Task: structure prediction
Amino acid sequence: MKSKLVYSFGGGKSEADIGMKNLFGGKGASLADMAGQGLPVPPGFLIAVRAHQLFCENREKLPTDVNREIERGLARLEKLTGRKLGDPKNPLLVSVRPSACFAMPGTINTVLNLGLNDKSVEGLATVSGSARFAYSCYCRFISLFANVVLGVPIEPFLQILEEKKRDVGASDESGLGDGDLVDICRKYKALVKERHGKELPQVPAVQLAMARDAMFRSWDIESARSYRKLRKIPEETGTGVIVQAMVFGNAGKDSAAGVWFTRNPSTGAKEFCGEYRVDSQGTDMVAGLRTPSPIRNMKKEFPKAYDQLARISGRLEKRYKTVLSFEFTIEKNALYMLRVRQGERSAAAAFRMVVDMVKEKILTREEALLGVSARQVEQLLHPVVDPEAKVDVIAAGLPASPGAATGVIVFSADKAMERAMSGKDVILVRREISPEDIRVMEIVSGILTEKGGMTSHTAVIARQMGKTCVTGCEAIDVDEATGRFIAGTRVLHEGDEITLNGASGEVIFGKVPLTVPKMTGAFGVILSWGDSVRRLKVRANVDTPRDARVARDFGAEGIGLCRTQHMFFSEDRLSIMRELILAATKEERDAALARLLPMQRDDFKKLYREMKGHPVKIRLLDPPLNEFLPKRADLLVEIAKLEFSRADRTLIDEKRMVLARVEELQEINPMLGMRGCRLGICFPEITVMQVKAIFEAACEAARERIAVRPEIMVPLVSLVSEMRAQKDIIRQVADETMKRYKRKIAYSVGAMIEVPRAIITAGDIAREAEFFSFGTNDLTQTTFGFSRDDAGKFIQNYLSRSELCQRCGGKLEKNLSCASCEAKYLRKAENILESDVFHTLDVEGVGEFIRLAAEKGRSVRPNLKLGVCGEHGGEPRSVEFFDRVGLDYVSCSPYSVPVARLAAAQSALRRRMEGKKRKK
Result:
């Protein structure tokens, strides 16, 4: 027996309810649910999401049995209303709307007043007693049907309307007479024939079938695809359709349409908000086509409807346990509910609302914690682009670090310093960030790079500093030599203003207003509730005292990764680091290390002071040494200029010596070359210096009665013998240092697990390592064989294949036709990846590696501490996986700490709920 695909509602009864969102979409299920509760909902019927899937599978035709179900649904609707679709004397008019399983506001349109034609419009005029009302509805139907169903642009219809208003001197539609509207309808129909090539369909049953099919096709329009991609909504879900009897907010001065929020969506205050407009239809409100009145005015104009909505608000908030928005219509002073959904609100409002609802006993604390999004936390920590601002987007890259920043373009660190010191907000634009640039990243407002990925060093450091950053923006062509970059047809020069949207990756021309969401008391309350239920600890990736202070303020429970290489990039230290690298003998290396030792010691002591007894995990030097040297191409240019200007020969020789060393250290694949523990094994004096600095700082801090808990991490371990070799040095230097200071410091030594061989041999490595820290950035890179700095060149293609023709790779248009090979009814190409694996953990591959290493490691050392220090540590879905696999902590950038805290709490609650279900 085939499952039923059409359900009816109305007359105080409903065949569907709120639990059927997956069957009929959220809009349809909630509408039917309200009808079932006896609320004033116009009758109608729902067509299931499965019908859309059948429509696509059957070359855009519905199976006969589904069409018959729709006919039966229509017959029931006609019986409930006492009117018939197509009746020229007393016509049934309906609205046709899509209903997806996930809300996609503003992406898919509605058809109103369907059923009108040249004959039934006269019947409507007779029944309503107003020809003006009837032809106003007909105008609306023609323009909406033409636009949504036939694909005719809406602008020429609006132009005809504006011309008529201008001709008769009317300020708005209410100033148009019967004859004016009849003339507009005539012109609208002529426009349809001109643009579409056919007359407007006059048979209402045909209109209904075409509108229904247009709703199905609307799933694949550009705006809907873009929204799903942005919100990570699955492509395969599809949409249902709602067919509902019309009610008319444009029936006169005793009628209106509006949108009502049960609480203030901006502040979260418990006060009714929204807008309405007298003598208007709902699409005017939602599309912003008419200037509305604030909802508070309804109390005087429509007091009965206002009181009804107030009562419904309380009733439905308790039923749905969330803040709601309604779309409603008032016809002849009677209220009708047309839609209910969770109200869109600011992040600050979301936190305040759920805390208030706990106080009002609508929600439990657990429900409140699950009622906010971990991603909303980010909005509370960074400025964002004003949602009301008009923006001119000129390019888009990867949203590497959240927030928004506006400022003048500069192309070098020196210029950034100069402009920033003069009080300017600065956006540093580079092809890629160099070591010299890192020193100014803290003073710039934002960073834009043509190259790089979500986990490039630029992105990592920007997130640590809380700087807005867009990387991998290959839509721009940066020419640093001439001080300009090209974006499409635009050429922007140094000093021009741009705005970066770190949440979307958009590059916006000019200065755009930013808003700074306020941290609220409710935000702290929610995080404290979350801390009481979460198991997973949250640490921070920090390298400086400032970052450590920020991390502690955000609730970090220690440092999970101190990247010691970042301590060498400041101007005074970079030169010493280069002396170390350029040293020809061990004695020269030792001399440079001796100068670096007190600097490192001071760094570590400051971190210990800030962390006040919380663990501090310090990674030994990791990157390839050539990262500290100038680029070969830059040196060649510099030498050529010096020779051309006949500069001092000694200076030229020095530059040539640096060039020779750069060429000597140059590697084909430096990320898999002389780096990580290989540096410490080949140059043990580097490890000695760093360990000595770690323990001297610890002993001196202990003298000051500061509790210290150092954890020393050996990077890029793939062999247990590598781990053992470095551990032996660490133990020896630690013992010698503590003996010299006459102090005993508790510490641990562990491995950074970031290559597949370390996963496979995790049991062996655990015999030497007291902890594992999974470096998921490099582990993702080595598991996939993707270069994290170059993956941006193809990863966007991998993520958007569903928009392409499977046959030729061309872009799919509406109706699944291909613009390139002109074939129709093509199956979409399958996305290669569903999300960026450098942003959201690949659970099936990289995640399985982590699970395997955890099992192997703990089988040898049961108390093995397990953590994550890659950027995935601050991504909510990844955090949930780490919690479920039994890790002890995650570590992320300071500004992601609150995100991880909430995500860990939500994961703990979901696991608890699953456990209760299993017991039942």
